[in-house]
Amino acid sequence: MTTEDQAATHRATLERLGADGGPLTAQSKTATAQNPEWFNVRRGEPRQDRRRLHNEILARFVESRPEVRRDKKAIVLAGPPGAGKSTAQAALIQATRTQPEHWLPINADDFKDELLQQARQDGSYDSYLVPDEVRALEAAGEKFYPRELAALVHTESSILAKKARNEALESGMNVIIDGTLGNEKQARILLDRLQAAGYDVLVADVETTQTVSEARTMSRWERGYLDAENGTATGLDAELGGRWVPQSFPASLFNEPSDTESICAANAAAIAADYGCVSEYQVYRVADKDAGPKLETTQGRAKAGGPLVDSETLAAVRAASTNRSTRGHASRTGKDFGR
């Protein structure tokens, strides 16, 4: 049985291999987007055969979710990894009085899994993807799981996620865009697209400290790794192992290690305030590594295109609007996301 001490040793190896310039980074020579047979590396564009694979993956992705509604609604998730966005997502869906199958969740991690599975199936995992350093360590007895090599498909998974998002918006699908919003420029590009497509948007930021983010992402990986090693994992988790996130990634989302919230918080607040398509903005907070996300703040627009107001003001305006509508004197004022 693999122990926690052995997991700690393997974790140190992964951190070393994933350091800048190491073999387990998005810029590694064995990363899929660095393969000249698959990509025009200089332009960062997939070649014809790879585009065909992308189209097949995206077609399966959409076909597996036939009940997705087309109401032009979007939930945009923000916050550092491990903060509990999946838990918050479940609460957000429930609040809309819909079901999970009514939404198309777009998360680059899911496309990483698809690409890793594809590589195992077509043989390119062993023939191309696995770096020589990992081969040598495996030959010496250290086992690596596919998700621990996820950095090698990072760029390609981002391309797939962006294409999935764009195609979903063109068809008006209800989407959940699961990311960090750690890059303000990219966050604004996303909201530009949503606003231009006529979407009603809820932005939900799930915040915690750098220490908690690092602890939770590491615990998640270790649990998955030990379960796979000891035969208690099932399904994809048994095949692909725990989801590895190098500690440098959570750290990159905080200006200072002592900060109480990430840079994602400022970006989420800014786009919520600046884009009229955002009808609701929520902030959740995770107090410690064992706690779940708790709703801390809700703001919304009392009228379309108006400023964000606090939840009490919003509730009062909506109640008054509902009363007027009931008497037949007025229609609903502003937006009420998904409800």
Write up what this structure looks like:
About 1% of the residues have low confidence. The protein contains 13 helices and nine strands. It is globular, with a radius of gyration of 22 Å. With 339 residues, the protein is of the alpha/beta class. The strands form two sheets. The chain has a seven-stranded mixed beta sheet, with helices on both faces. A two-stranded antiparallel ribbon has the order 1-2. Its EC number is 2.7.1.176. Keywords: ATP-binding, Nucleotide-binding, Plasmid. Pfam families: Zeta_toxin (PF06414). InterPro entries: P-loop_NTPase (IPR027417), Zeta_toxin_domain (IPR010488). This is UDP-N-acetylglucosamine kinase.
What keywords describe this structure?
two-stranded antiparallel sheet, plasmid, UDP-N-acetylglucosamine kinase, 47% helix, alpha/beta, ATP-binding, globular
